UniProtKB/TrEMBL annotation:
Every GFO/IDH/MocA-like oxidoreductase domain range: 151-295
Protein name (Swiss-Prot/TrEMBL): Putative dehydrogenase
UniProt keyword DNA-binding present: no
Gene3D superfamilies assigned to the protein according to its UniProt record, in alphabetical order: Dihydrodipicolinate Reductase, domain 2, NAD(P)-binding Rossmann-like Domain
MF annotations from Gene Ontology: nucleotide binding; oxidoreductase activity
Species: Motilibacter rhizosphaerae
Keywords linked to the UniProt accession: Oxidoreductase
Entry annotated with the keyword Transport: no
Length: 397
């Protein structure tokens, strides 16, 4: 481990693999976290890794990394690296994360954990072995760390919703509605594992299970690929933007995934994930109803949580808009004076905060790789069910 800092805290060197949209979001978190939160360890943004030497050097400058490199194997072998942050497409998560854990590095890995249940199982095995040596691993489901979502979990845990009966989760985007939008990696099964299902459906599966404290035990699903062929990729434009060439290739993933679900604690739910919902930009909505109350969360108003207390007298009961901006709310005391809102990027800062807290104190962070594997089993059950004309498919939970 690297030497301690002036404040007596250990200073941990971070290597981030990949620097596209998620790499940029994670970089923002690494830059901010130590200035906002009081942490048991310091994190140094040591090196960012990518395949193209010029592009990754430019990314290091832009995003605030001390160095850049092109060979992740060399980087994870370095003594000055303590943490590896995996921000690559899903096809390399298992290889990089397992190698990093075996090299004794703590690992933060983007979601979904892997492209298949098999790979995720191998990652869980590697994480279990690493944990015996105090090396920790976490999967990056950042939306759990939106304060209103964490608060929703707290309300359920405190019993304010009673027995959970209904879950309604939708994640609606529209960035590939145009049939001429090119064949980026998120539309290729060998790179992404699945389409809307793994990219955004994984988020609502994790969120619904986290907030309810229940696991999805079975599903009946259907998936659809509306646009079967697209222009091959000519160039990436940052964020999710891209331009196409005149040649075309097949789309090998789902464009939309819908499913019914049963939960281990008796709740039932519906899920919908699509990147074809014209007009919906990042429309993630979670509604939960229980015997004593209900909540509704909408990512497009992420500082708010709608809460209905069904035990109140009917004359004045009803949904209340909780503004989740107060120091009493999860994570908020570290930010601005009461009433001042935060945004999308803060969920990544909170994620890195919780990860560093776990590394500093030696506690297992959540969601663990085992939690990531369990989400992967749900995604797998959805695909199995959809391929068998929506046959009811247990997840194993
Ligand atoms: C693209 O659909 C995407 O960037 C996802 O990959 C992210 O996980 C989600 O946070 C926003 O949308």
């Amino acid at each position: 481990m690297a030497a301690g800092t002036g404040a007596g805290r250990r200073s941990l060197g971070v290597a981030m693999i990949g620097y596209a949209f998620m790499g940029e979001a994670h970089s923002q978190a690494w830059r901010t976290v130590g200035r906002v939160f009081d942490l048991p360890v310091d994190a140094r943004m040591q090196v960012v890794v990518g395949r193209d030497a010029d592009k990754v050097a430019a990314a290091a400058d832009r995003l605030g990394w001390a160095e850049s490199a092109t060979d992740w194997r060399e980087v994870i072998a370095r003594d000055d690296i303590d943490i590896v942050d995996v921000c690559t497409p899903g096809d390399s998560h298992a290889e990089i994360a397992i190698a990093a854990l075996e090299a004794g590095k703590h690992v933060l890995c983007e979601k979904p954990l892997a492209n298949t249940v098999y790979e995720a199982t191998q990652m869980v095995d590697a994480a279990a072995h690493a944990a015996e040596h105090g090396v920790l691993a976490m999967v990056a489901f950042n939306y759990r760390r939106v304060p209103a979502v964490t608060l929703a979990r707290q309300l359920v845990e405190e019993g304010r919703l009673g027995e959970i009966r209904h879950v309604r989760a939708t994640y609606l985007q529209d960035w590939i509605t145009d049939p001429e939008f090119p064949l980026v990696w998120r539309l290729q099964k060998d790179k992404a594992g699945s389409g809307a299902l793994g990219d955004i459906g994984a988020h609502i599966v994790d969120m619904a299970q986290y907030v309810t404290g229940q696991r999805i035990s079975g599903v009946s699903a259907l998936t659809e690929t509306f646009i079967k062929e697209r222009p091959l990729l000519a160039s990436l434009e940052g964020g999710l933007g891209a331009t196409g060439s005149s040649e075309r290739g097949p789309v090998t993933v789902d464009d939309a995934a819908l499913f019914l679900a049963r939960f281990s604690g008796g709740a039932i739910g519906t899920f919908e994930a699509t990147r074809f919902a014209a007009g919906h930009k990042n429309g993630l909505r979670l509604e939960i109803e229980g015997s004593k109350g209900s909540i509704a969360f909408d990512m497009e108003s992420l500082n708010e949580l709608q809460f209905h207390d069904h035990t109140e007298p009917a004359v004045s009961a009803g949904f209340r808009r909780l503004l989740v901006t107060e120091p009493e709310h999860p994570y908020m005391a570290a930010w601005w004076p009461p009433g001042h809102i935060i945004g999308y990027e803060h969920s990544f800062t909170h994620e890195v905060r919780d990860f560093l807290e776990a590394v500093g104190t030696g506690q297992q962070p959540t969601p663990s790789f085992a939690d990531g594997l369990q989400v992967q089993r749900v995604l797998d059950a959805v695909e199995t069910s959809a391929a068998a004309e929506s046959r009811w498919t247990p997840t194993g939970d």
